[in-house]
């Protein structure tokens, strides 16, 4: 597993935890949406880099 892909996946999961936490705290929807988009992009980038390593 590549170091960068691992880092991207970890950051994506961290941001996903922030989305869940902010949703429980009833934070503004715009903040939650931005964190969700960032999380999805990090996870997607990490997974696509894994495809490049294993594919």
Radius of gyration: 13 Å
**Which residues sit in consecutive blocks of at least 5 with pLDDT less than 50?**
none
Provide mean pLDDT, rounded: 92
| Strand composition percent | under 5%
Question: Strand tally, please?
Answer: 0
Structural class: mainly alpha
Count every helix, treating DSSP H or I runs of 4 or more residues as helices: 2
Describe the protein in words:
- The structure is a single chain.
- The chain has 2 helices and no strands.
- The two termini are 12 Å apart.
- The chain has helices at residues 3-24, 29-54.
- The longest helix has 26 residues, at 29-54.
- By secondary structure, the protein is an all-alpha fold.
- The protein is elongated.
What key phrases describe this protein's structure?
mainly alpha, single chain, 55 residues, 0% strand
Précis, in short:
This protein has 2 helices and no strands. With 55 residues, the protein is an all-alpha fold.
List the helices and strands and how they pair.
Layout: H1 3-24, H2 29-54
Helix pairs in contact: 1-2
